[in-house]
Write a structure and sequence with these properties.
Order of helices and strands of chain B: HEEEEEEEEEE
Number of strands of chain B: 10
Structural class of chain B: mainly beta
CATH topology of chain A: Immunoglobulin-like
Largest interface: A-B, 34 and 33 residues
Oligomer: heterodimer
Amino acid sequence: MKKDKKAMSPIIATMLLIAIVIVLALIVFLWFRGITEEAVTKFEGTNVKLVCEDISFDASYSDGNVYILNTGNVPIYKMRLKSFTDGSHTTETITTNWPQYGLTLGGTYNGEISGNVTRIILIPVLIGHSKRGDVTYTCDERFGYEIEI
Amino acid sequence: MIKNKRGVSVVIGYILLIAFGVIMGLIVYNYLKTYVPKDTLSCPNEVSIFIKEIECNSSTGNLSLRLKNNGNFNLEGYFIYGTTNSTQELAVQDLSLFLKNNTGPIKLGNSVAFSVSKNSLPPNEEVSNNFTLDYSIYSIEIIPTRFQGQGTKERLVGCGEARVKQELNCYE
């Protein structure tokens, strides 16, 4: 039986332990920082995800044009347009003719949609505040407005 | 064997634990408080407007409206939109640009206010407004507005739930 069997020296073991703790602490720190920074707020501290529920707008489509009317009291900064053609879809942000500051209270938009689309979903994008400054937030698709063409 | 082996004292241990708990609690609180719903700025349900009379003249472009506040709250004014072709379902052309403002009402942003004083149209009262349009319209939509208190401020809100639509046949 070997008597002089050696493992790691206590110094190495301590260093490893400290290194592991530091790495774990960094991971936890970065995770928490991510959580706090992700909190995008609007209207004096309301999470923008809740504000999405208060959006109210009406839309229609005729003769290749889409018409949007903001009937609520939440300004819509941008609009994502999800267009469905046969078997595929594309999503883009409406830029042509879109008002610079978005659809404010009572704001309207009309613009042309190109392509052979069969269905569109209009998904509102809001602007909120976070620690990084003003950031945009795209609402969930369930808050969008669907139009069959 | 080391006999005087020492770790963190019990008191320091508790202090560290409590401090860690408080910091974690603050971080979580700051994040979760954004999810607490607050009173949103919206119109009362009993806001309503009614287009009592409408007259239009395609040759002069004149559009006359007689509006009645048939709700339970005072109104500030309204957004007014028109459709420019017969197939258009949603009116989006802002007609407040064509308001004849020598008749009392004023333009407030992209809306029409009944007068310079706030929420000036009380329930059951009527008002007439005139417009001179540059182009033909096929229908109009009106969304009433009012100033609504939020904290110490009063803000203009649109009452989308009380929107009214009227088809026109004078420009055909």
